[in-house]
Specification:
- This protein is mostly helical.
- The protein has 2 domains: 5-146, no CATH class; 148-177.
- The chain has 7 helices and no strands.
- Helix 2 crosses helix 3.
- It is elongated and about 70 Å long.
- The chain starts with a helix and ends with a helix.
């Protein structure tokens, strides 16, 4: 089972658009990774009870909301939850509520909009509070006290860029000789 592209695209568009181009790719990578971890979590829960994940299908709203709960659980396990402002119940409570609602009325989850709205709140909290490059570079979320301004970002990256330019320039000079 692979996450559905419409949910992924919707989450990326609604969260990344107001944040600007700089974060668009980071948000896409983040959302894709969260959905991949969601599939792993579903497999871990359902395969032991005999559910064949290669043929299993889930309502899109359920998958989106489940992804939100999986991310909040990851933050809780990493000790980051208290550092990321988000109106969201503890993951265990949210999971119990989600599974119960899905059990009682699975058809209610066929509309992806409510589940995607829950997931988007989690993605927004990540985008506003976590460094956009940390997950890709370090494999973990790094909570920031405040998002870096463009000037702060440029100041942090400038030494690296200058070193690259100097190295490239010296290599070109040695190639010319």
């Amino acid at each position: 089972m692979r996450h559905s592209e419409p949910i992924l695209h919707s989450a990326v568009q609604s969260v990344a658009s107001p944040l600007g181009d700089r974060l668009r790719n980071a948000v896409k990578l983040y959302v894709d990774e969260v959905f991949d971890r969601t599939i792993v979590a579903l497999q871990a829960l359902l395969e032991p009870i005999g559910v064949d994940m290669t043929t299993a299908t889930f309502a899109p709203g359920f998958v989106a909301e489940f992804a939100a709960v999986v991310q909040v659980a990851a933050w809780e396990n990493a000790g980051l939850r208290d550092h990321i402002p988000l109106e969201f119940p503890p993951a265990a409570t949210a999971m119990s509520d989600l599974v119960w609602r899905y059990h009682v009325d699975p058809a209610a989850f066929m509309d992806p909009a409510p589940g995607t709205a829950v997931f988007n709140r989690v993605v927004e909290a990540w985008a506003k509070n976590c460094h956009p490059d940390a997950r890709e570079m370090l494999g973990a979320d790094v909570v920031m006290a405040a998002p870096p301004s463009p000037a702060e970002y440029a100041a942090a990256v400038a030494p690296v860029i200058i070193t690259i330019i100097e190295k490239t320039s010296s290599e070109e000079k040695s190639n010319d000789a």
